Amino acid sequence: MRTIFRCxxxxxxxxxxxxxxxxxxxxxxxxxxxxLSDINIKIERGGFVFITGxxxxxxxxxxxxxxxxxxxxHGEILVDGINVSxxxxxxxxxxxxxIGMIFQDFKLLTHLTVFENxxxxxxxxxxxxxxxxRRAWQALRLVGLHEQMDAFPLRLSGGxxxxxxxxxxxxxxxxLILADEPTGNxxxxxxxxxxxxxxxxxxxxxxxxxxxxxxxxxxxYRKQVVFLARGRIVRQQAERAPIAEKDLPEISRS
Length: 254
Ligand SMILES: Nc1ncnc2c1ncn2[C@@H]1O[C@H](COP(=O)(O)OP(=O)(O)O)[C@@H](O)[C@H]1O
Ligand SMILES: [Mg+2]
Prior knowledge:
Layout: H1 2-14, E1 20-28, E2 34-39, E3 42-43, E4 48-52, H2 59-66, E5 74-79, E6 82-83, H3 92-97, E7 99-103, H4 114-123, H5 129-142, H6 158-170, E8 176-180, H7 188-203, E9 207-212, H8 215-221, E10 224-229, E11 232-237
Parallel strand pairs: 4-9, 4-10, 7-8, 8-9
Antiparallel strand pairs: 1-2, 1-3, 1-5, 5-6, 10-11
Bound molecules: adenosine-5'-diphosphate and magnesium ion (MG).
Magnesium ion binds at residues 59-60, 180-181.
């Protein structure tokens, strides 16, 4: 009985924990300089946070550490209650089931159809055929691509390919989405589409962490921002009230 109570209280307490916390996090690649130094961040559940900074600042490294794709040199990382800094190989799938990743270059499997790309993400998680069909259809509907589910990715535009990648990330219903320069290959209209889609997911409770060097994007959306430079946090900015539509700057079309 006692154990049950302990389990219940542990589960309840989890919802009060931040989605992400790092403590004195450092990463130095073999033979390299420090890619990250003394990173301390807290990202609340349900937050939407931009990680920004110039090329080489450490944005991708930070996301890789959160996703256990790289190991920290020092420091601690907690993601959704999981101690990622101490994670062993067997528990990595448990972590990754809780994280949807989105990349600049989409990383779709070009020999599979749109539907098969989404289904594949669920197959490796062990879902049955019926559940895969239901979830994949729902995810593709959400991103407005259900009619293209039999197309191959390279027949789609860049914006559509990124929407497929978003569907693949959200089909697992993850509490956290990590996006690394997701609009880096897209023009301004498609950029707005993709960000609005992530904002919609965020409004339904998904925590979103988006790495971008695009300062216009950050200005426009006025979300929480962590500024990195040479591997260190140089500034943090809280979410600000949205600007009225009429006062929005045009996103530069360069
Ligand atoms: N696999 C790697 N091996 C060695 N150095 C790396 C590796 N990945 C990144 N770096 C270095 O770490 C620093 C941070 O890179 P990165 O995290 O990719 O920055 P950003 O995403 O902000 O451009 C850079 O100096 C980069 O050269
Ligand atoms: Mg990067």
